[in-house]
Amino acid sequence: MEIYEIIITTGISLLFLITVFVPMEKVFPAKPNQKFFRPKWLLDFSFFLGQYIIWSGLVLWSLYYFGEYLTSIVPDSFQQEIRKQPFVLQVIEVLFFSDLLIYWGHRLQHKVDFLWRFHKVHHSAEHLDWLAAHREHPLDSIYTIGLINLPAFIMGFPLESIAGVIAFRGIWAIYIHSNVRLSIGPLRILIGAPELHHWHHDLDRKAGNYANISPIMDIIFGTYTCPDREPEKFGIKEETPKSYLGQLIEPLLPKHIWKTLKKKFPIA
Fold first, then answer.
1. SS3 (DSSP) at 180
2. d(Cα 98, Cα 9) in Å, to the nearest integer?
3. Which of 37, 60, 71, 76 has a Cα-to-Cα distance from 228 of 20 to 30 A?
4. Domain range annotation of the chain
């Protein structure tokens, strides 16, 4: 894809997201006084541009390479047996194992310090809305998207056939970060909602709600939480770089090297 096509696609995506999510945030606000241009808006917009213009190609390339590799090592006889099943059953299996994997993969991101050093970039956002969903280190994106799509690749679904699912999960991720509180009643047990993920972004690193689309895994493994109010604060308790470049570089370096680097260069 040429650079001008990427820029046009990015502009269309930005317009689409603003058109869809900003009215929802105004009509059903989780935090009514939060402005469109809230603090750190420009930082999150930098992550948005980075994702769409620079890192999306890397993530898709990694996903494609990962899928091709798995397809080559998984026995064809196994994939043939999967394809003999009814399509609806295949979809249910993919979604179930995908949610199971991403639950434990996400939980590990909060437990294992090496994974947390990349994932904390996402959690450093102190205000949640549709734009904050894009604050994510590219290596963290590769880890997450790879895990989510692992079952589909093992079962023999090519990347092209799951493109719609990938797009849906992307929109869903933006929705659950949005500044929206829209009650769905008892269905909240089956379908995730922004209020669940907002509590995941509480200052407590072990706040829970690690599931992706459905909170069933959190209920099964005892990490489901959803008080009838919004968290007082979002973010992390650790010190974190305040610039886009700083947040990209800091997780890659040992702490002593990062401290030396930020003293010499204004990237923190």
1. strand
2. 28
3. 37
4. 38-237
CA distance 241 to 255: 12
Sequence-distant (≥ 6) Cβ neighbours of residue 180 within 8 angstroms: 21, 24, 25, 28, 29, 30, 194
Token pair 């869809």 is found at: 20
Closest CA to 72 of 10, 158, 182, 194: 158
pLDDT tens-digit profile of 207-238?
A: 999 998 899 999 999 999 988 899 999 999 99
What are the beta bridge partners of residue 111?
none
The Cα-based distances of 170 to 13, 161, 213 in angstroms read: 12, 16, 11
In the numeric block, which tokens belong to residue 177? 């970060």
**Per residue in 51-85, pLDDT tens?**
999 988 888 888 788 777 777 788 888 888 888 88
How far is it, in rounded angstroms, from Cα 237 to Cα 234?
Answer: 10
Does the pTM of the predicted model rise above 0.85? yes
Residue 170 contacts by C-beta under 8 Å, 6 or more apart in sequence? none
CB distance 174 to 18 below 8 Å: no
Nearest CA to 53 among 121, 5, 118? 5
pLDDT tens digits along 185-208: 778 778 888 999 999 999 999 999
Alpha helices in 28-74 (DSSP H): 41-49, 56-73
Per-residue burial over 68-81, b if 16 or more Cβ lie within 10 Å, else e, is: eebbeeeeeeeeee
- The residue written with tokens 């963290």 in the block is 140
**What is the spatial distance between Cα 199 and Cα 201, in angstroms, rounded to a whole number?**
5
